[in-house]
């Protein structure tokens, strides 16, 4: 039985891939990643495959760095238990499956603040969960796209809180 949360996430991923597959970002934007915990696509076309060695500080960092350099790489699947990852091309029509020993990183262009530019990824999404904010310092964004929501989260505004 397919979870409704997985279907929603799939739609969001397909939207993100359309944006994230760009080799170069527009001025003022940087290629970064959104980390999706515990899911992987059931079918993907590999662009590269990488196995962990003792030479890198982080398997995830090495894989994301490689994908960032390759125009055809739109996402990265990291399989922690196997110590491997693969960069994948744009995924148009696929189902996501639960895999608690994996992470799925989608490439996206965002206006990343300078203090975050050294990080391997800028945002995290967890299937089945959503942002919830309340109080006088919260900000609600109505009728927006996933891209616009991500951008609102990264605006360096200490007056607004998203959680």
How would you sum up this structure, described in words?
By secondary structure, the protein is an alpha+beta fold. It has a single domain, classed as Hepatocyte Growth Factor (3-Layer(bba) Sandwich), CATH 3.50.4. 23% of the residues lie in helices and 28% in strands. It is built from three helices and six strands; from the N terminus they run αββαββββα. It has helices at residues 4-20, 59-69, 146-154; strands at residues 30-41, 46-51, 75-79, 84-88, 96-110, 123-125. Strands 2-4-3-5-1-6 form a six-stranded mixed sheet. A hairpin with a 4-residue loop joins strand 3 and strand 4. The longest helix has 17 residues, at 4-20. Residues 1-22 have low confidence and may be disordered.
Q: What class, by secondary structure content?
A: alpha+beta
Beta-strand content:
25-35%
Oligomer description: single chain
Intertermini distance: 30 Å
Let me know the CATH homologous superfamily. Hepatocyte Growth Factor
Protein name: Apple domain-containing protein
Keywords: Signal
Signal peptide: 1-21
Organism: Operophtera brumata
What order do the helices and strands come in, and which of them pair?
Elements: H1 4-20, E1 30-41, E2 46-51, H2 59-69, E3 75-79, E4 84-88, E5 96-110, E6 123-125, H3 146-154
Parallel strand pairs: 1-6
Antiparallel strand pairs: 1-5, 2-4, 3-4, 3-5
């Amino acid at each position: 039985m397919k979870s409704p949360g997985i279907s929603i996430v799939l739609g969001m991923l397909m939207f993100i891939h359309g944006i994230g597959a760009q080799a170069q970002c527009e001025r003022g934007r940087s290629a970064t990643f959104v980390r999706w915990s515990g899911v992987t696509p059931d079918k993907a076309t590999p662009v590269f495959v990488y196995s962990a060695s003792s030479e890198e500080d982080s398997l995830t960092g090495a894989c994301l760095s490689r994908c960032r350099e390759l125009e055809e790489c739109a996402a990265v699947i990291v399989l922690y238990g196997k110590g491997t990852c693969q960069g994948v091309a744009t995924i148009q029509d696929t189902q996501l499956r639960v895999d608690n020993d994996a992470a799925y990183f989608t490439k996206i262009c965002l206006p990343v603040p300078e203090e975050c530019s050294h990080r391997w990824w800028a945002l995290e999404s967890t299937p089945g969960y959503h942002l919830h904010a309340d109080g006088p310092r919260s900000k609600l964004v109505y009728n927006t796209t996933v891209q616009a929501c991500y951008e609102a989260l990264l605006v360096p505004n200490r007056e607004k809180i998203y959680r």
